[in-house]
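Re: that backbone. Tokens:
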């Protein structure tokens, strides 16, 4: 059970003005819950590995981001120097990971020879469906 602390009463936060005063019983619990909330909130950030293929060229790009919509929009607008000459793009794959190291590991796998072969096959299959 979480004990509510009255934020208007400075004594409940342990600010009595005397050295060595003891804070109210719920003070530490509230601080701990705030810290836990922040850790949970920031650890919920998902990382996406995305693969885009140029519509006009034979070019596949693999990237990692926390906001795939913004990142793919930037690619299609030409804000990325690497992909600007190959635009427009279409998405052929997105994968979601809980942590950046996991996403980075998958990104590296997709950039290997076997990963590129898999992506070319996937791109061909998605083109034939369209």
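Recovered sequence:
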């Amino acid at each position: 059970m979480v004990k509510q602390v009255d934020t208007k009463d400075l004594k409940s936060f342990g600010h009595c003005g005397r050295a060595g005063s003891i804070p109210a019983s719920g003070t530490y619990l509230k601080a701990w819950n705030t810290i836990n909330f922040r850790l949970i909130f920031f650890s919920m950030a998902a990382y996406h590995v995305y693969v885009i293929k140029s519509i006009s060229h034979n070019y596949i790009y693999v990237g990692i981001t926390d906001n795939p919509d913004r990142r793919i929009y930037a690619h299609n607008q030409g804000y990325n120097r690497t992909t600007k000459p190959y635009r427009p793009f279409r998405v052929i794959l997105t994968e979601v990971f809980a942590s950046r190291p996991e996403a980075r590991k998958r990104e590296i796998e997709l950039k290997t020879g076997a990963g590129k072969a898999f992506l070319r096959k996937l791109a061909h299959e998605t083109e034939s469906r369209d």
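Confidence is low (pLDDT under 50) at residues 1-17, 27-43. Strands lie at 47-54, 60-65, 89-97.
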